[in-house]
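Technical annex, item 7. During the second reporting period the consortium partners agreed on a shared format for inverse folding records so that results from different sites could be compared directly. Each record opens with the tokenized structure and is followed by the designed sequence. A conforming record, contributed by the partner at site C, is shown below for reference.
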């Protein structure tokens, strides 16, 4: 699907127009980009079937943008975009990834200091040049530098959601080669790590050369790093590298184990194997040079006296010790999830109506669904005030009447935690909501003590159900608040406040924190934070993160039956 790549370009066109101080147009491009990115149909299909007219029916796409999409589909380029880039040779894409830098500031830095890319920006900061600029200063100079380091440290890794379509496409093509007997994705992808550095694909086959020959000609491949009998490495259009390894069927399980990693897990496993008189490598498990296992991964763990260890747990924490005692958690699964408590509707400004959310939830087989629009202070969307929440309550009642035999709709909100720890909706209204999510959306930069007190104060409100995206981090874009999480977790446990595992690019809480919070005894919601219908499907990423945090079904509140969850919510 080309939806995403076109959306990215439209977004960038908006940015360049913004730089040029052109009114209205930037927003139009960005709206079209968001709509294209969340579109479920393949834009190329739409164009093939319905032509330009079909494109114009996409929300936010008018004639001029439709023509540009057509041009891209036909030529792989948009001339207008190329010209804009030429006119303003600024590396907007990377500069914008730095936290705290928007188009306006970038334009200003370009005008004042001639900065066109990240390297030049860094040099300017090193020479202390930003500190005396209007609108910047010492503190913001420091923050920008932190933003650059964060980007540099994280920039070359990809979220699984960003690359999954490409990976599936390649695996699909490999499967079609008839010599391929078995195929698995190994590495960090199989461990469902939140970001992956490269993709490791493992194939069992007897004629590796034939497979390598075809692999390097796949349409997505843009560069060949190395090509051998058993291993070939390429780069695909998305920018990520793929290692393809071909092994024999007898070694497939051992190779899968080895290349799944993590390195730390493998080292610990090898030490255990040695202590039991075995030798373990990517070809198999051997005793006195005699092959004992290796065809199936499970057999290796079994022979070593271990319970099977799911890939998500293989991080070299204490999984081997627990597997030896047969005490691994029974990890939560996607199919255990019976509803979603973080969705944003058109009632507060998204493009999806409450009814669409409900229908989609029914479609997914959910037993219940929570609507949780933003409140007042948040101006990005039209944050709801007390009066609007009351109106929304009536609408939700209607939905429950209409769809009550299939699903229960819960009315909630995502209420802002203000700077002083109070909430931006009055208690008398909070009281009447079915659930109350609270989250920090403003004033991110606070001292650790202050921020911790702020959040704890907010959690002290008796109507609160769940603290959403507790640390504020966004993978690859922004670090977490300065926060005493241990305190927050203790308080949440004592006061029965749930914590969110947010399935969007936030992945917040992260797996380390989930594991720790679980040890303390906290409970969680896994939510999608949906702003576009398609995003309701990203529940699996939150489930992945929860699994990596050793969470079981009983730790996750939205795996309860409808009856149980009604009781749970009523207890507030
Ligand atoms: P990534 O790609 O950075 O997201 O992380 P991984 O875990 O996929 O790492 P990668 O692609 O370098 O290697 C894949 C797996 O191969 C890794 O998880 C474990 C195994 N492996 C690689 N190098 C070594 C090594 O030096 N020793 C051991 N024991 N295992 C290794
Ligand atoms: Ca890898
Ligand atoms: Ca690799």
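Designed sequence (site C submission):
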């Amino acid at each position: 699907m080309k939806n995403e790549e076109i959306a990215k370009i439209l977004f960038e066109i908006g940015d360049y127009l913004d730089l040029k101080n052109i009114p209205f147009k930037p927003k139009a491009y960005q709206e079209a980009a968001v709509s294209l990115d969340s579109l479920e149909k393949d834009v190329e299909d739409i164009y093939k079937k319905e032509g330009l007219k079909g494109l114009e029916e996409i929300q936010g796409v008018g004639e001029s943008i439709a023509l540009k999409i057509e041009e891209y589909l036909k030529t792989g380029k948009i001339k207008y975009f190329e010209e804009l880039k030429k006119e303003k040779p600024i590396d907007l894409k990377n500069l914008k990834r730095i936290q705290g830098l928007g188009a306006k500031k970038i334009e200003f830095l370009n005008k004042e200091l001639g900065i066109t890319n990240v390297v030049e920006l860094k040099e300017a900061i090193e020479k202390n040049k930003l500190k005396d600029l209007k609108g910047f200063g010492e503190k913001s100079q420091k923050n920008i530098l932190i933003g650059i380091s964060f980007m540099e440290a994280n920039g070359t890794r990809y979220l699984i959601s960003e690359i999954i379509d490409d990976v599936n496409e390649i695996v699909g093509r490999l499967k079609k080669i008839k010599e391929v007997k078995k195929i698995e994705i190994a590495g960090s992808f199989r461990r469902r790590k939140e970001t992956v550095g490269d993709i490791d694909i493992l194939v069992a086959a007897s004629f590796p050369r034939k497979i390598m020959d075809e692999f390097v000609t796949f349409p997505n491949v843009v560069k060949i790093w190395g090509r051998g009998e058993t291993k070939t490495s390429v780069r695909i259009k998305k920018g990520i590298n793929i290692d393809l390894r071909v092994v024999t069927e007898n070694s497939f399980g051992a190779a899968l184990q080895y290349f799944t990693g993590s390195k730390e897990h493998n080292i610990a496993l090898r030490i255990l194997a040695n202590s039991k008189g075995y030798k373990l490598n990517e070809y198999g498990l051997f005793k006195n040079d005699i092959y004992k296992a290796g065809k199936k991964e499970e057999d290796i763990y079994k022979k070593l006296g271990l319970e099977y260890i799911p890939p998500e747990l293989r991080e070299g924490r204490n999984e081997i010790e627990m597997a030896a005692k047969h005490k691994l958690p029974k990890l939560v699964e996607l199919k255990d999830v019976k509803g979603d408590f973080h969705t944003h509707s058109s009632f507060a400004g998204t493009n999806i109506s409450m009814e669409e959310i409900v229908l989609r939830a029914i479609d997914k087989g959910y037993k219940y669904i929570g609507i949780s629009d933003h409140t007042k202070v948040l101006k990005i969307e039209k944050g709801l005030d007390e009066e609007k929440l009351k109106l929304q309550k009536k609408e939700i009642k209607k939905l429950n009447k209409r769809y009550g035999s299939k699903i229960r709709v819960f009315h909630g909100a995502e209420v802002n935690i203000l700077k002083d720890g109070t909430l931006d909706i009055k208690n008398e209204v909070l009281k009447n909501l079915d659930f109350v999510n609270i989250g920090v959306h403003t004033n991110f930069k606070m001292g650790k003590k202050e921020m911790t007190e702020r959040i704890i104060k907010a959690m002290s409100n008796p109507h609160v159900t769940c603290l959403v995206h507790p640390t504020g981090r966004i993978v690859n874009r922004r670090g977490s608040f300065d926060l005493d999480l241990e305190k927050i977790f203790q308080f949440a446990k004592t006061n029965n406040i749930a914590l969110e595992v947010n399935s969007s690019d936030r992945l917040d809480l992260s797996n380390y924190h989930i594991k720790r919070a679980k040890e303390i005894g906290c409970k969680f919601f896994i939510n999608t934070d949906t702003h576009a219908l398609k995003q309701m499907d990203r529940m699996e990423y939150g489930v992945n993160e929860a699994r990596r945090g050793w969470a079981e079904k009983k730790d996750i509140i939205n795996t309860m039956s409808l009856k149980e969850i009604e009781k749970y919510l009523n207890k507030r």
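The radius of gyration is 26 Å. The domain at 158-247 is CATH 3.30.460.10 (Beta Polymerase; domain 2). All partners now use this format for quarterly exchanges.
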